Amino acid sequence: MHTEEQVIAQTKKWITDVVVGCNFCPFAARELKRNTVHYIVENSTEISVCLETFIRECMRMDDDAATETSFIIYTNMFADFEDYLDFVSLAEALLEQEDYEGVYQVASFHPQYCFDDVEEDDASNYTNRAVYPMLHVLREESIGKALENYPDPDAIPERNIDFARKKGAAYMQMLRNACL
Fold first, then answer.
1. Which Pfam families does its entry note (predicted)?
2. C-alpha dihedral over 102, 104, 105, 107, to 10 degrees?
3. Strands 134-139 and 104-109
């Protein structure tokens, strides 16, 4: 069992080496440099507690304009990717229920992430394969501003897929696993 500090350090390394290093998110490096990323480790094995942590983080971000984005890292839950997807759906429904739709957006990352209609061993899955199951909470307003000034933001996912496939699954897996 890793300490919270180790889990956060591994997550930061994954963000730096994979997300920024592979340029999967062209906006991440700026937020890392500005130190506007918040990390929470949730060790609970109860879905209700995991959801409470998620919505509490949204409330905390309401009160902390200095936090641009937040990662909630779930260390003891959601080993199964399908269970994790069910949890993501619950989190998105909770956003709507708590009137946060349009305020925050959730991005999902999981060690076994697999896109619909893509083979499990396809390298493209590594664009969302993190070191732990996690939810990434982003400010909708900030996403909009960032995308306004970025040429052809709709091409980002396809560029990421092409990059990962050119590197290959073995390389992408090695890069991610080196963060552990």
1. DUF1415
2. 180
3. antiparallel
